[in-house]
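Z., the sequence and structure:
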Amino acid sequence: MDTDVEKKSFVLKGIGVSPGIVIGKAFLYDRFDAQVSFYKLRDKSLVNKEIKRFKAALKESEKQLLKVKNELFELAGREPMYIIDVHIMILKDKMFINHTVQYIRDMLINAEWALKMTIDRYREIFEKVEDEYLKSRVSDIHFVGQRVLRNLSGGRQEEVPKIDGKDIIIAIDLSPADTAQMMINKVQGFATDMGGKTSHTAIVARAVAIPAVVGLESITKLVRTNDDIIIDGAAGLVVVNPDPEMIKVYEDKQRHFQQAQEDYLRYAHLPALTVDDYKVEIGGNIEFIEEIPSAVSHGAEGIGLYRTEFIYINKEKLPTEEEHFSHYKSVVSAEGLQWATIRTFDLGGDKFYSDPKLAKEMNPQMGLRAIRFCLKEVELFKVQLRAIARASAFGKTRIMFPMISGIEELREAKKIFCEVKRDLRAQGIPVGEDIEIGIMIEVPSAVVIADELAKEVDFFSIGTNDLIQYALAIDRINERVTYLYEPLHPAVLRLIKQVIDIGHGAGIRVAMCGEMAGEPVYIMILLGLEIDELSMNPLAIPKVKKVIRGSTLKESKELLEKVMAFSSASEIREFVNNYMRTRFPDEFQLSEQ
């Protein structure tokens, strides 16, 4: 017997996407995968029957999703529901439907086969997308397709079986609907082979506070139902078959975490003010307007970065001015927020379903994207700018241009925006009087000429994700070089310092909206640099505020001076980690670093 081997204790490291610690029993969840049959239709007379069958499966799928959505609303309110709405939107998407119907008609194939071809087509489109977040969106189409296939095959199996409230789900991957259903069934936590921090499943897990670790690669092969499991969603660890001593350690950690969460939330609505009265404005980064309530409840004073790309994605036609306006008005007029920073379109043309003719670029991260694309497609750009200008009449609005690398781009973008505002006013359409114009500092050339750029704008916002990537010549999506991606690299710190010093010298505010802004371990360094605003994932705000309120500007400057004297990233990281653990022992546990 190999019982002893099966029950051996071991630890797996993945990606922590939703914090919290849970201890329970594993439930190996194998989502029902319809046994799909593929066949040719005998003749054209069967085509209409097959199309009707496909459309009936779409309706049944929508009915099932609406049921999940209604149950979820009763339990969790509106916040996580938009992800279910995304799946319903895909079910109703004309392109999704029309491609499948066309395959049935043209190729005389059954609905299952046609649907699989549509899903494969979408997958090919998304494979061209370099952005990790957007690339992961193909999973939504896959999950919707699987649901429809189940209904085509007459499958009536429940998404998540009735399981014990102490169970921890172990799966290859989970759809957002699966995750939502787990919340309804009071599942403790989950761990999956696949997934990343930006997957919709991860977003649902955070929204409904289910501790989760993803990207474990082979947990489904190593774990069996009823194995004892511990999930540490902050550290990204899964302990399988822990011994009693390990369970005791994690019970203590669990208690500490729960106390800390209550403690942090007490800081959510306090100002981010150091002990010696240095004030930092705190914003939230969002992709969807449905995230605004979470931003407000976690203490965001405004929206420091509204990514507008999702208004464009997965649409048969480009969004209209009214669609843009509706989104932007909701953001700038949201109750509880003092301002909203709307970033203009930050993708390349290859992201549009509506224009598949655009050639795939060899290196899209440095190709025709962001402001470059907008200045080439001026009419498309004007639609977005008109909507932003109109929305500015309803609340304090900041507009931000991404990927500015030179003064000409900035001046051209400003010129077009001024024309748009002038045209709107000539039509008698209200426009805000105090729209601030800013740029993302994410290209090294922008740092070098920051003194010139500062004369042209009201604020800078440092996008550390791309600035680090471009400055260190690292593709942060390429796992072979991600070990080199280091926010505390002396070159990165010098670049950030240069931007802030130049901005302040020119009398403009400097914000940071990259991932670095929401990492508490970097906060004292950023305070020492005298950053004016930090914008981050709303869930990070309470802890960041607690660290700020426990610090002083004086000691932060002294820490920065010591850090800037080091010559290597490893020296800086070791020094900063040790300093922060000593300075804030309750906030910085060894497992977090």
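The chain is about 45% helix and 15% strand. The chain has three domains: 3-31+159-242, 44-152, 267-454+512-592.

Let me know what you think.
H.
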